[in-house]
Amino acid sequence: MAKRKIFPDAGAALSGVLFDGMTIMSGGFGLSGNPEHLIAGLLHSAVRELTIISNNCGADGFGLWTLLNNGQIRKMVSSYIGENKLFAELYLAGKLDLELNPQGTLAERIRAGGAGIPAFYTKTGVGTVVAEGKPVEEFEGALYVRETWLRADLSIVKAWKADPEGNLVYRKTARNFNPNMATAGKITIAEVEEIVPAGALDPDQVHTPGIYVDRIIQGPAYDKKIEFRTTRPREEASA
């Protein structure tokens, strides 16, 4: 039964799942932990009018940028525009809807969606444009703004390892938004670097239980790009 979760490639895993106008959560932070093969599958599918929930929208020529460049994204729910010039240009030209969130608020909205919590209160954004149109209440002498959960028709995530049951292990900073997003989609598809045999993962090391994961693919290769490489001159060796 578990082997039915494993699909040969992104196209097969996305088959029967996609529809125009759907909402998709996509893991990743900058260029770390992006489900790049599943994003490529979305590009080739030509599904359109997408609402994408993701920390940012890839980088020039890579990741979610490709969907943006192909006109497939209608709205972004993000916390960072960054150096993505196309993202900024489309938004400023009125060709892309944007719901900008403080980064911690975005993470908590996603976590709340996976936990079945429809709303929560936070100090972040009180007295700013972030709070406009949202209820604000006082608790113990401080003001808090009410934020609502985020959920998706589909979550696509990137993990390091999976077993046939869909239990996932992430590696270091590539973990980022992926675990929360895996819980908040009606359907969750994970792409991984390695699929290990059943029983090979230490249960104490599993970050996402397989009950949240519907389909798995093993990516053939990962470029693991560095968005900004920062270096310093090597110090001269002492005599």
TrEMBL record:
InterPro entries xrefs: 3-oxoacid_CoA-transf_A, CoA_trans_fam_I, NagB/RpiA_transferase-like
Keyword list, A-Z: Transferase
Pfam entry (one): CoA_trans
Entry annotated with the keyword tRNA-binding: no
Molecular functions (GO terms): CoA-transferase activity
Protein name: Succinyl-CoA:3-ketoacid-CoA transferase
Organism: Sphingobium cupriresistens LL01
